[in-house]
Amino acid sequence: MRRRELLVGGAAAGVAGTGAAVALGGWNPLEDGESIPEFELAGIDAPGSEPGPITAPERGSVTFLEVFATWCGVCEEVMGPMGTVYDDVGVDVQFVSVTNEPLGRTTTAEDVADWWADHDGRWPVAHDDDLELTGALDATGVPYSVVLDESNAVTWSDSGYKSAEELREPIDAALTTASG
After folding, report:
1. Contact, 62 vs 175, CB < 8 A?
2. What's the predicted TM-score (pTM) here?
3. Fold adopted by 2-179
């Protein structure tokens, strides 16, 4: 019995440690260079966004994806830096924020649209209803940022708060590689 308790305790500690490392940005479960497929997400009717399908990441362009949740305080804080970066690169980069909250239960699409407007969102926002994109990105926490190149290969990913400079650097690197 003691051995089983030790094994269960060790497994629980490993899961908790992994979760803490991901949440604090200390470990990235998705390796650079891994390519992911395109996903069709449900666009949310909000400022800068329209209802209907959004394909992300979009093969043929550099893509910035941000997985967020309306209940997340850090997600709220990073909206300002993301807005700054979007204003600078939005024409050259597919820029999409994605929530995977279970819409229709405690949160609705209208709640997300209101949160989006309240936090100056002005680029496409989508819902990952079946969690396929979230799973492909191995996004185990929010906010989770990913930059993908023109072939949908991950060039950078990290979790937690990022300044505009921290977001811009990997995007610029992907754009330089794409144009070079």
Report:
1. yes
2. 0.81
3. Glutaredoxin (3.40.30)
